[in-house]
Design brief:
globular; 5-stranded antiparallel sheet; 307 residues; 4-stranded mixed sheet; alpha+beta
């Protein structure tokens, strides 16, 4: 269904029309959201979910925009930002505050820095990863030093009917860049951290951050890794990182329009002036097709594309 201007007229949910999404993503490109909503409470979000379901209007959740490509045509639906205080609080409980409960809209940068400052270990391995907590859990964000899934003890969720419920650690399955959480919205999560010597903790934090800064084009308009790493070679067991395959296929610095395969890390696409989402999509398809032809490996996209 096409979104009309009166879709949310009688709901007390702050919202805007025809909002450019490019500036809200790390790529910095793409079209607009027909509606960008800012629910201020769980109750407002539930009302919004029920209205969109009743009217057949698609919903999208915008976090940090770090692994997101918005089509040039934009999004004919309701995009939701969970950036109100109801979704960005952080509470510390348990022994020396090691049980941390945070809203899904909390930025991972903030949570990592804050927990390290409190001498709580666990999240320092995620230093430099751009995401909100909800997005990080949804994708089981991680890198060379570990992922977030191992820390999660409980999540608070909302389904497509607007119902709120929780799932505990025994119900959760985290794997490489995925989780078994199928609920439409992650509202909050509890993480179990550990006290650590501040000197050692800061050393680990700096190691993880420096690794990311020196191996990835963080300063460029890019959305992180384009593809997930494929499984190891079935015959030899050898790891097959997507970036290595793309590099070996001779694709570094390959360019379509304003989109270019990064010369620093071949699994990253960077956007230059005038780049469009169409350029990025075309380059993604060339990378995938070339790697398939050269190595017989089908790469799975990690970047999320709207719609």
């Amino acid at each position: 269904m096409l979104v009309t201007d009166d879709l949310l007229a009688d709901l007390p949910v702050p919202h805007e029309f025809d909002v450019p999404l490019g500036p809200r993503t790390w790529f910095g490109i793409g079209g607009s959201a027909k509606v960008l909503a800012h629910p201020q409470s769980i109750e407002q979000l539930a009302a919004l979910v029920k209205r969109c379901r009743a009217m057949g209007v698609p919903m999208y959740v915008l976090g940090a925009g770090a692994n997101l490509l918005v089509a040039d045509e934009g999004v004919q639906g309701v995009v939701v930002e969970l950036n109100a205080p109801a979704f960005t609080s952080i509470a510390y409980e348990g022994t020396n505050g090691s049980l941390v409960t945070a809203g899904a809209g909390v930025h991972l940068f903030k949570l990592v820095n804050e927990t390290v400052a409190k001498n709580l270990a666990g999240l320092e391995t995620l230093a430099g990863i751009p995401a909100t907590l909800g997005g990080a859990i949804r994708m089981n964000a991680g890198g060379a030093f570990g992922d977030i899934g191992r820390l999660v003890t409980q999540v608070t969720l909302m389904d497509s009917l607007g119902e709120v419920f929780t799932r505990d650690r025994d119900d959760l399955v985290f794997s490489y860049r995925s989780t078994n959480i199928s609920a439409r919205f992650i509202l909050a999560a509890t993480l179990e951290l550990e006290e650590e010597d501040p000197v050692e903790l800061n050393k680990q934090f700096k190691t993880a951050l420096t690794y990311k800064q020196t191996t990835q084009p963080l300063a460029a308009n890019s959305a992180g890794c384009t593809f997930k790493n494929p499984p190891p070679d079935p015959d030899t067991g050898e790891a097959r990182p997507a970036g290595k395959l793309i590099d070996l296929a001779g694709l570094k610095e390959t360019r379509i329009g304003g989109a270019e395969v990064s010369k620093q890390h071949a699994n990253f696409i960077v956007c230059h002036k005038g780049c469009t989402a169409g350029d990025v999509l075309a380059l993604i398809e060339r990378m995938r097709a070339t790697v398939l032809e050269e190595f017989g490996v089908k790469l799975e996209r990690e970047v999320v594309v709207w719609p």
